[in-house]
Amino acid sequence: MQNLRLFFLFFSNLVCISNHNFAQTIQQATAKPLVVLPYTSPPSQLTQLVGLTEIKITYYRPSVKGRKIWGDIVPYSKVWRTGANKATTIEFSDDVLLNGQKVKAGKYALYSIPNKNEWTILLNKNAESWGTENYREEDNVVIFKVKPLKGVFEETFKIEIGNVDKKRADIFIEWERVVVPIELRVELEEKVLRNIEGAIGKATDKDWEVFATCADYCLKNGILLDRVNEWIEKTLNANPKSFRPYWLKADYFALNGEYRQAIDMAKQALQLGMVERGEQFSYKADLERAINAWQEKLK
Question: Domains of the chain (ranges plus CATH)?
Fold first, then answer.
């Protein structure tokens, strides 16, 4: 019995001091973690909407810890998991362009081959790989090269999405003093048009908010302008006591250079907004600026 107790004491100590990555590997192979412990390289997930396309990146974040990273911890000219532990994954809800190359909607492993003056980025269809264990060159679906940049020191590896607008963004892979930029572009117009046509097609005359929302977007983006006035009129007929359709009508007149009519409509929108919301009417200053700008046009 004493020997049995000593065995269990030894085994318990062995579990506690065992290699952390090994423990994480065992936990991932079971439905329920054996022991919940902190990660040496903690997991992170980034989700960003670009236009109407969702981008999701899942990765692990190693730290420098005084080590030489490039050409040592991360060897040059070899496939890297672009992080730690499981291979980094990137997922797109729609087709996108990465550095000009078309990538179909789906989930991919994001591998890379770092070099001092040039990186190769690899999107691989095997998105469930531990490190590079299951990496196969024939599973690559997109390959392109990028130039690394010099950045500020980053102790902990990170991936960011920046410079976001409706049609594009940049993905940045950053660690130590290296920044690797990847250009992302999304298809917007076709999806927007489908969404608008679908919403308008289902709307009844009482669904004034659908007509107003579509009209507002089209006015601001210069699309379907031949149909906007029809939607504004439906909005006016359905909700004549709201400031919103009058403001839309004002913008429509201004877009067509009819500034007197625009001013009249904007003044009606301002009056209705004050009646509707009083001093809480948050668009008062915006309407007053628009009226002043259009009055200047008439001078």
Answer: 35-185 (no CATH), 189-297 (1.25.40.10)
